[in-house]
Amino acid sequence: MFPLLCLMLAACAPAQPERSADTRLIATDPVLARALGDPLMSDPDLASRNEANAAVGFADSSALPVLSATSSQRQAARDAARLELLEGGPIPELPEARADPGGKALGPLAGPADLLAALGAPETCAARLREDFGLAADLPAVASVMPQAMVVQAGGADSAPCRIRIIRYHTAAAPQDVLQYHYTRARRAGLRAGRHTLPEDIIAATGKRGESLVVHVRPGMNGFSSVDLLYRAP
Fold first, then answer.
1. Whole-angstrom distance between the N-terminal and C-terminal Cα of the chain?
2. Cα(150)–Cα(172) distance, rounded to whole angstroms?
3. How many domains does the chain have?
4. Whose CA is closest to 78, among 197, 196, 188, 173?
5. What are the tens digits of pLDDT across the range 106-118?
6. pLDDT tens readout for residues 156-189
7. Is the residue at 162 inside a domain?
């Protein structure tokens, strides 16, 4: 009697819909699942984003970039950066790193207070920051993003004393090449630039009018270099 009842219940149970090949692929690929399930950047009140876009500093997805940087891509990124720099003249030697720390380590989890402190900007600037990828396309030469780079976050503000750009990007170029690129840009803009290796690779530069450029570089996912580019105009 009991086996017969089990068979009857099984027959009455609703049939499970057959999952499509695409659905099965997403279920077995955590990168795709995370990308499709990630909160939309257009919704400012989602928990993983800053409330009301008041500040830049949400946790970036560690699943990006999906592709791996190959040795040929690293060389191509290095060549593209050097060709761009050579258009402006000889490339200066990257200086020896200073012994003192260049500030706090940053990265995708750094909050607005840490980002603003790295630039020497007032804490009140946090309320003026907005997130907008268009800001990455409107950068002065001193704060240029490396060629062939992938911008993953862009934000800033445009009113004094908060004329700020905060750009995060990934590049296949090696950290040494990233440092060389931004050091050269800083020097050509007339900034006093120094290099630090503590707590991570950093180029820190300041100008006579209060201009500042701070670049943090660290090894990223899949062989890429992760870069935080911070700029404050005078």
1. 86
2. 9
3. 1
4. 173
5. 988 899 999 999 9
6. 999 999 999 999 999 999 999 999 999 999 999 9
7. yes
